[in-house]
Amino acid sequence: MVNKEYNFVVMNLGSRDGVTAGSEFSLYHNNQHVGDVKIEKVHDAMSAAGFLAPETKDKVSEGDRVVQKVK
Questions:
Q1: What sections of the chain are H helices per DSSP?
Q2: Which domains does the chain have, with CATH numbers?
Q3: Which of 3, 15, 30, 66 could form a cystine bridge with 25, CB 3.0-4.6 A?
Q4: How many whole angstroms separate alpha carbon 26 and alpha carbon 5?
C-alpha cells in the first residue's frame, strides 16, 4: 500500500521475515528502480517505511517489488 499524503508505504514483510527498523529497501516498478525507503515501524507480518527522496512517492504503485538493500 502507498500513502502519498503521509509519505510512506506499507509492505507485506515484517519481523518474521527478518525486517528490522532502520533497514532500507529499494522499490521497483515494472523492473525499473524508482527509489528507496527506510523502515520506521515493524510488525510480525508487515512494516511501514518512509521515502528517502520525496519524488519517489510519485513513481511507486501498490504491488511494486521491494528488495532489501545490503549494507
A1: none
A2: 2-68 (2.40.10.410)
A3: 66
A4: 20
Tens digits of pLDDT across the chain (71 residues): 999 888 899 999 999 999 999 999 999 999 999 999 999 999 999 999 999 999 999 999 999 999 999 86
pTM: 0.90
Give the residue from 47, 52, 59 showing the smallest Cα distance to 10. 47
Q: Tell me how far the alpha carbon of residue 52 is from its chain's centroid.
A: 10
The dihedral built from the CA positions of residue 30, 33, 39 and 40, taken in this order, carries a sign that is negative
